[in-house]
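Troubleshooting log. The previous structure file for this entry was overwritten by mistake, so regenerating from the original sequence record. Sequence copied from the archived sheet and checked twice against the printout by T.R.
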Amino acid sequence: MAADVLASIAAHTDKRVARLKTERPIGALKSSPLYKREPRDFARAFDGTFPRVIAEIKFASPSAGFLRQEEPAPEAAARIAGSYLAHGAAALSVLTERHFFAGAPEFLSAVRAARPDAFLLMKDFFIDPYQFELARAHGADCVLLIAALLKTGLKAMLGAAQGLGLSALVEVHDEGELEAAKGAGARLIGVNSRDLRTLKTDLDVARRLAGKAPGAVMIAESGLKSRAELSELSGLGYKGFLVGTALMRVEDPGLALSQLISA
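Regenerated output below.
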């Protein structure tokens, strides 16, 4: 693994997208039944009462390795999704990157087929508008745009996602990236307390950036392990919380979610 983890993931993603463009051209994606559904406004997932959690389905990560004993598969993703929703998840995030996170777009479409009304975020490393077509074809409502990855291309990618009817959660880690997200017109901003270059996590990042994007729905991401932390960040203005690793390590992720939000 390179010292700059994000750069390593980006290099793999570039090769993966080039291959997918050949294997699954846009015309084929548009013929998918799921492409025809109208994505829902992901911001609506955060209209309810506290706490509003995006529960994440991921089987592995660069920082923690494999998180579960079971084999990553569409059926497992759909089962975990059902458990999350039964235990109070406001929305779901599905990792679709294979090399580092053991995910696949088919996990997302399996969750959509099983839970047609759920708010679904496709969690991947978006570097090319082609991936938005892929997101539509697999049933996403929202895509993740990482400011540190897209840099000056953020605004154009945000516009391309919105042009296909997709919501976009723009992820930031520092003040400069937050300003870029605001400048691009982001309505949903995720503050990731994990530095994607080093994988170090510090909740002070979320505390420091709280309240600095008036008018946007702010989501706190990474490192969240207790109801006390959710309550603290809610008091600072966060409307939602993305939680993954802490839940996926438990035998029943949905039950772990219930314990987190009801404690």
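The chain has one domain: 5-35+47-262. Archived copy saved in two places this time.
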